[in-house]
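hiii, so i know i said id send this last week but things got crazy w the move. better late than never?? heres the sequnce for the chain we talked about at the cafe, plus the structure i predicted for it. fair warning i was half asleep when i ran it
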Amino acid sequence: MKDFIHLFASLLLLVIPVNTNAQSKVAHINTQQLISEMPEVIAAQSELKKLEDQYAKELETSAKEFQTKAQSYQGDAQNQTELINQQRQVELQEMQQRIQEFRETAAQELQKRSAEMMRPLYEKARASIEKVAAAQGYDYVLDSSPGGSVITASGKDLMADVKSDLGF
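okay and structure toks below
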C-alpha cells in the first residue's frame, strides 16, 4: 500500500506542472492592414478626399485668376503710368500671398479634419484588439506592421524588479 501511495504521488507530480512560471501568450496583428480595411476608415478617407479635391479646385481657380490678371497687367503695362503699374504689382503680390495663405490653411484644415476623423477609429481598433486579446488569454499583442510596436502588455512588468536590482 505504501508503494502504491508513492507511485500515485509520483504520477501526480508528472501530471501536475510543478513550474508556476506560466508562459506568456503572445499574438500579433497588422494594424495598418486592419485599419485600412475598416469600413469607417474607408468612408472617412473618401470624405477627406472630397474636401481635398474641393480645396484643390479653389486653389486652381485662384491660380488661374492670378495668371490671367498678371498677363493682362503685363500686356497693358506700357499704356499705364508708373504709379498704376506699381499699384498693380502690389495687388498681384497681395493676391499671391492670399493664395499661399489659403494653401497653408487648407493643408492645416485637412490635417486637423483627418486627426478628428481618424483618432476615434484608431481607438476603436485598439479597443477591439485589446478585447479580443483578453478574451483569448493573450498577455502581449505585437503590431506586425512595418515599424510596429507592442499594442497591449498585460504580462509582468519587470520595471520595479530591475530598478531594485540596479539599486534605485
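btw Confidence is low (pLDDT under 50) at residues 4-20. thought thatd interest u
miss u guys!!
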